[in-house]
Prior knowledge:
Radius of gyration: 28 Å
Largest sheet: 3 strands, antiparallel
CATH class of the largest domain: Mainly Alpha
Oligomer: single chain
Strand order of the largest sheet: 2-1-3
Number of domains: 2
CATH topology of the largest domain: 434 Repressor (Amino-terminal Domain)
Distance between the termini: 62 Å
Strand content: 5-15%
Amino acid sequence: MPLTCEVCGAQIKSAPSSVEIDGAILRVCPSCARRGRPMRDPVVKVVLAGSPAPKPPKPEVELEVDPEYNVIVREAREKLGLSQETLGMMINVKPSLISHIETKKLKPDIALARKLMHQLKVNLLISAEELDSVQE
Length: 136
């Protein structure tokens, strides 16, 4: 099947050009190539025989907030001598949020748990597998 220009529709007899026109990358004939910005063709990686195979990506461990997060946060905050207001200012949240976490009215999301972990030097995240074994 002959290759056709994606701009004018004409059959491309020579090597097609890749150009960017209004943010779209198109394969065009030489006469339409001047209408866009020339793009390089994507580089194809060649794996030579005997070279090590690429390592598969590590499976990400699914993390959950520890069920005892309220006790851990309160005890760590008190140990450091911080008020709820001070801790809230340190991690850029309202003091009432710290209060809700400590009274278990609100479970922190992963991002907030990481902020608390950084400031209080505690671990609030456990793996989902570990959480399942604790609950059984």
